[in-house]
Amino acid sequence: MKNTFSRRGLLTTLGAAAAGVLSFAAARKAKAAIKTVFVRTNAPKDYNPYDHKWLMCFDVDKCIGCGLCVDACKKENHVPEGPTYFRNWIERYIIKKPKPGSDAARGEVIVDSPNGGRDGFPPTTIPREEILKSFFVPKLCNLCEHSPCTQVCPVGATFDSPDGAVLVDPNYCIGCGFCIQACPYGCRFLNPETKTAEKCTLCYHRITRGLKPACVEICPTEARIFGDLKHPVENDPIQNFIQKNKVNSLKPHLGTDPRVLYANLDKEVR
Fold it and tell me: Which pLDDT score is estimated for 45?
């Protein structure tokens, strides 16, 4: 049967779409089309995302909280200045000893991150004799295989790249903030200048050209290990790290399957 379209019918359809009443299946098709047509990255034209699988790992015991990674990220990716705008930050965990007479194995847990750890950390005011354990934990986008942010984006501006990166197309992001609310790791923010969502991209403009992310490049203790699972090299750091360490992800109970892994991660880290 021949299909006919009227102006009124078209306006009705568009109105329904704008009101968010398109069926789920139609919405998924629309998002797929948007990804094909509108998505842009700053990778080289000859870069094939299907030929790579990026992975980021952290050795918590090696992080000294110097903040060089945070500063490098800010400068490399033109992250807005301000205490709330970070693609990458460091948290300090201080676990106090249990109170006398308590049956608990450990006491209060205190977490801070002054200016994202960019300027390092001032000495704590907690007396040394009250501290059971203290350490630093680097944080960034967890590169979830089942990412909540991509699921809630109404226009497909946030998308999973075949190489394991989770990216945002700023040319199509409408700044609705749904992805910021959906991220269980607090890894996103709304850029006050562009009014679009922003997050760590693993320095996509660097890794697609054979370079390391800026934070990995500058880390003085090699607490950050980055590599390509599809292109292991001789004495590959990422392969050696996974083989020699028991690695964990943050909030595994959420089922997001992060591609960011940690070694020597304390159970108190959240």
Answer: 87
In the three-class reduction of DSSP (H, G, I as helix; E, B as strand; rest coil), residue 56 is classed as strand
Only one residue has tokens 């980021």, namely 56
Q: Domains (ranges, CATH) in the chain?
A: 24-87+140-265 (3.30.70.20)
What does the pLDDT look like over 33-62, one tens digit per residue?
444 444 456 788 889 999 999 999 999 999
Beta bridge partners of 134: 94
Report the candidate in 60, 235, 230 with the shortest Cα–Cα distance to residue 134. 60
| Residue 169 DSSP one-character state | -
Torsion of CA 72, 236, 238, 45, to 10 degrees: 60
Name the β-bridge partners of 167. Answer: 159
Backbone φ, ψ for residue 28 (5° rounding): -65, -40
Exposure of 84 by Cβ count < 10 A (0-12 exposed, 13-18 middle, 19+ buried)? exposed
